[in-house]
Amino acid sequence: MHNLLEFLKKYNYWFLFIVLEIISGTLLFHFNQFQGSVWFTSANEVVARIDRQYADMMAFIRLKQVNKDLTRQNIRLQRQVNELRAALSKANHVPTPTERQVLDSLKGYSLIEARVVSNSILKSENYIVIDKGQDDGVHTEMGVIASGGVVGIVVYAGRHYSMILPTINVKSNISCRIRHSNYFGSLQWDGGSSLYAYLNDVPRYAKIKVGDYVETSGYSTVFPSGIFVGRVVSVDNAPDGLSLQMKVNLSTDFGALSDVCVVVNDERAELESLQLHLMKSGENAQ
Questions:
Q1: Which domains are seen in the chain, by residue range?
Q2: How far apart are CA 120 and CA 127, in angstroms?
Q3: Per residue in 89-115, is it b (16+ CB within 10 Å) or e — as a string?
C-alpha cells in the first residue's frame, strides 16, 4: 500500500494530465458535431479492421477442416465419375467374337457378377478373392469366367467373399478340348508366365496346329462346353513320349482382372446325382 501511494505521488502530474486529456476529448467530440463524426468514423474503421483480422484468423484456423471436407467430397465425386464412366463404357461396348462365343456357350446358365478384391500372379499357387459368397448364391466347385474366357474354380465360399483357384495355379486342372474336334486333354500351369499354360495328354495322332482355339470340354459340371481358354502357340511331344503337349496363350489377362462372373449350373444337382448313380452301379457290377 505504501509503495502504491509513493507511485501515485511520484506520477500524479501524469495521471492528472491523462484525466484532463480524456475530459477535454470527451467535451470536444460530444459538443462539436464535426469532430464527433470524425471520431466515430475513425473508431468504426478501427473496429471494422479488428473484426476483419479476427474473421481472417478464424477462417485460417478452420481451413484445415475445410480442406478435409473438400478432400472427402472430391473422393466421393471421383468415385461417382468412375462408376458412370464404367457404366457408359459397358453400355457402349460391342462384344468381340470371343465374347459372343462365351455368351453363346452360357445360354441356359445363370451368372453371378462379382468384383476381384485380391489377386496374385507371381506365386506358384496363386489365388483370387471376389466380393460374392454364399449369401449371393456362390458355392464351391463353381466355374468362374471373365469377358476373355475361363478364370478358375471356386474352392472356398464364405458368406460374403469367395476364393478362386485360377488356371495360373499349379494345382489347377481343367478339362479342355481343341475347338471343332474331339481331342481333349488337361489344362495345367507350370508356374512360369501368367500368360501361358499347357494342354497335356492329347493323343499323338491328333491333328493340332499352331493357332487352334482351346476351349472347355464340358466333361464336368463346373464349366459348360465351348468357353474360350486360349490359342495354341506351339505343339511338342510330351516328356513321356506318349502324347502331345501344347503351349496355350491364355485368353484371360490375370494381371488386369477386375470383373468376373460365377457360372451357376441349374442342372448340376441332377447331373451329379446321375454320376453318383453310375458310379454305384459300376461298383455293384464288380
A1: 100-266 (2.40.10.350)
A2: 6
A3: eeeeeeeeeebebbeebbeebeebebe
pLDDT in tens, the chain (286 residues): 666 566 656 666 666 667 666 666 565 555 555 554 555 555 556 666 776 776 667 666 666 666 666 656 765 666 666 566 666 666 565 556 555 665 566 666 788 889 999 999 999 999 999 999 999 999 999 999 988 789 999 999 999 999 999 999 999 999 999 988 888 999 999 999 999 999 999 998 888 999 999 999 888 778 888 888 999 999 999 888 889 999 999 999 999 898 898 988 766 555 555 555 555 665 555 5
Spell out the residues 6+ positions from residue 66 whose beta carbon is closer than 8 angstroms to its own.
none
Could you tell me which of 246, 249, 247 has the C-alpha nearest to residue 204?
246
pTM score:
0.62
16 is written with which cell numbers? 492528472
Q: Residue 213 in contact with residue 194, Cβ under 8 Å? A: no
